Amino acid sequence: MADSPLLNPRTYDPTHLDDESRRLLRATVDWFESRGKRELVDSYNHQRWYGDFLDFAAKEKLFATFLTPAADGAGDPAKRWDTARNAALSEILGFYGLGYWYTWQVTVLGLGPVWQSDNAAARARAAALLDEGHVMAFGLSERPHGADIYSTDMLLTPDGAGGFRATGGKYYIGNGNVAGLVSVFGRRTDVEGPDGYVFFAADSRHPAYRLVRNVVNAQMYVSEFRLEDYPVRAEDVLHTGKAAFDAALNTVNVGKFNLCTASIGICEHAMYEAVTHAHNRVLYGRRVTDFPHVRRELTDAYARLVAMKLFSDRAVDYFRSAGPDDRRYLLFNPMTKMKVTTEGEKVVDLLWDVIAAKGFEADTYFDKAARDIRGLPKLEGTVHVNLALIVKFMANYLFHPAEHPPVPTRHDPADDEFLFRQGPARGLGAIRFHDWRAAYDAHADVPNVARFREQADGLTALLAAHPPTEEQQRDLDFLLALGQLFALVVYGQLILEQAELTGLDRDLLDEIFDVLVRDFSAHATELHGKAATTEEQAAWALAHVRRPTVDPERTARVWSQVEALSGTYEMNV
């Protein structure tokens, strides 16, 4: 379907990007399609390392082109860090499988501390390794501590010659089996506190780098490794002291954004497969898609998936337009990590309810999607970690709007160099946002947008009249329930902004907000049931349960968009 907002490899042509980016993205799609579904499925089922994909990426210089900032690109006009085209590649890789996305994703993370560093030798080395086709790794988490970087046991002992000897283990490190460069976080043995932190570059091929095992039962390689008296030269040191701590968090700000586009790609492929199967199956003398509950589930899945794309596409613009005086992306980033990825789980669950046993079959893409979609909300902390971060922005977002220049759609071939000079990772509570009401006001004529706006206004009234008590603010379980309500308001804002910029079909927008009204009501009901909720807050919760504006003709028109997906894409065998 030509006008579908979903990625369709048969018709894919990213005309919004420059010619070389278009060529590389199309070449990536063509590589997967020529390789075929049988090989895709078999390699996943038999957990075969995706060396053929890495060979393709090396031959095309795919990662080198997309992940080398312009300043390190030796004058190559195609090399830059461009969040718009990175998001496009991330979506394509997710579409074909989490493993292919994952090796790209952890390369992004491994490069974060390098491109934030002033170490010219390390930057030149990283650029050369990318040109040679290497992938990278991000050595942050450890088995006893997870990603708690305050507690790192990677210890660096000064060697008396300006370098160190590093000893310690890292755990859950993607690409750790083959990475040409591993950005490793540790701490000095001779300096206490934050001043002792160090980020350094290691090489997985070094004899003092010991690969222990793959810690997951999957096609992808997620390593445990140990450094035993590993020599860290002065030219290997990327950051020291508090700058190393900031580099860790700022890398996550840049790299973990890709979780949303992976989730979108997985859901798109799963949706084509599910709709085509259901629409061509007859049960009890009726086409499966003639059953009302099936139409509702598939329509909801489609609305949720399009909403995921709208939010994520618009978030790209805020990343690309960010600067020292505009850090709104720091809210939209945990939203993509938490909200978009959990929406992906809901999409797959809805599709699975329709196709049932088909979703377990080994020769489908769907059974891989059903397994892999679960991982994305958990690959950066947890939903709870990101919700707790989102809540930090709530007061300024809802109550203290500030003037900001309009943020345009950003598809221009520019280098997003600010992402590697974000500065200290603090001051989130001081970030100001433009008035969220403006996007809702612009769509007040859409019935379910108006209905949801009632709920959003109600949330601000609740926080003004009955804000969380000191005790409730220490109760993370209560705050997370409140945070889900706030997250929906933020989610709706960027959906509306992108809908305006892209001229989204009005029926589809109304259907998306039909879903959001129901979601707000569900989270309000959850808040009502929390033990810490006061009587006044509980009464508010019940009073803001809303029924969406029902329009059978609108829903039927949106259903026709879903129905038209049947048969429009099936991967080459």
TrEMBL record:
Q: Does the UniProt entry include the keyword Flavoprotein?
A: yes
Q: Which parts of the chain are coiled coil?
A: none
Q: Which residues form the Acyl-CoA dehydrogenase/oxidase C-terminal domain?
A: 245-393
- What GO CC annotations are associated with the protein? plasma membrane
Annotated signal sequence range: none
Q: Does the keyword Transit peptide apply?
A: no
Pfam families membership: Acyl-CoA_dh_1
Example of a GO MF term: acyl-CoA dehydrogenase activity
Which keywords, in A-to-Z order, does the entry hold?
A: FAD, Flavoprotein
User: Which CDD domains does this one have?
Assistant: ACAD
- Can you tell me where the transmembrane regions are? none
Give the record's family classification. Answer: Belongs to the acyl-CoA dehydrogenase family.
Name of protein: Acyl-CoA dehydrogenase
- Source organism: Micromonospora siamensis
Q: Taxonomic lineage per UniProt?
A: Bacteria, Bacillati, Actinomycetota, Actinomycetes, Micromonosporales
